[in-house]
Amino acid sequence: MTDTAQSQQAQRGKQEEAHLILPAAEVDAGTLRFATADDTERALCIGAFNVAVPEDLDVRAGLDFCRTFYKPGTGDPADRHRGHREHGHPASKLGYEDRPDQVEQLQLESFLWQEYLPDEVTAVLRRMRQLTLDVLYGVFDAAWVPEADRDLITGGAPQDTGLCYTTVNHYRAGLSDRAGIVEHSDSGFITTICTDQPGYEILHEGHWLPVRERPGHFTVNLGDAFRVLTRKLPRPVTAVYHRVPELRPDAGVPDRSSFTVYMGPRYDMPLYQYDTEGRLREYQSFRDFSVEKAGKLGYDFHSRV
Ligand SMILES: O=C(O)CCC(=O)C(=O)O
Ligand SMILES: [Fe+2]
Asked: Per the database record, which ranges form the Fe2OG dioxygenase domain (predicted)?
């Protein structure tokens, strides 16, 4: 083998091994804690980290629902486990979407969970919503976002009057020649993700790296609303660019599942930004921002919003 071929092979070997280990945190009596100040710094800089699943939260009902929501309904209107492809979800501005990538998604606002989802799934999501709120406020602390501004910026996240929704993801490994989920940043402040298998990747310092799963932990993403808000502050937050590459069918392995709780501004609200003097300014309507972003990424924006 030539020197060049050898070094190329070594390089490939290195790339195959390369993965990213995210900083880890936990929520202790409502307060977000990283092990070290350096972990806090890295979390804001990467725009992603792990947070421990609380002891009183059993995520299985959520993952089970990822494996049934898309199946044809049984005809029993009381069965909320299946039939969501055809359902229509008339009260939701989001709902079911058959996307051009492998993933098919059900997105429902938090005030509709009780109506449309099985009770045990709603219970998991509500617990995850509380955790996500605690984590969000912990990141506001870390990024020096003044407490007095947080209700305005979020539209009242603690009272659940901002925009909070779940996304339930089924990755159809049987569909070939498409990404699992195309590369994107999330639009809001924060997304907490629960997955059943690896596949999540982050664009880190110019390279796509698979993220090492940390057992017993969720992954948290920070999104565009946070990036815009803090861009001119001393501790700017990154909106993490992430994706799931094409998944291949594997005998005996179920399709990949994930579900998330997202928090962001309502579409009738502005995005805010601190100027260099630390004054809070309206930046752009969140709806306009979202429509522009969808256009750039080449997908349709929710037709009902
Ligand atoms: O399934 C995952 O790991 C990521 C899902 C995701 O990026 C999303 O729902 O926005
Ligand atoms: Fe995402």
From this structure: 162-265
Q: How does pLDDT run across 183-210, given as a tens digit for each residue?
A: 999 999 999 999 999 999 999 999 999 9
Q: Complex ipTM, two decimals?
A: 0.99
The CATH number that domain 27-297 falls under is 2.60.120.330
pTM of the model: 0.94
Alpha helices (runs of H) in 143-175, residue ranges in sequence order: 150-154
* Residue to probe by mutation, ligand 1, list 218, 258, 261, most atoms within 8 Å of CB: 258
Which atom of ligand 1 is the closest one to the Cα of 199? 3
- Nearest 5°: phi and psi at 163? -110, 115
Q: Cβ neighbours of residue 286 under 8 Å, at least 6 residues apart?
A: 187, 225, 264, 265, 266, 267, 268, 269, 270, 271
Q: Where are the domains of the chain?
A: 27-297
**260 Cβ below 6 A of ligand 1:** yes
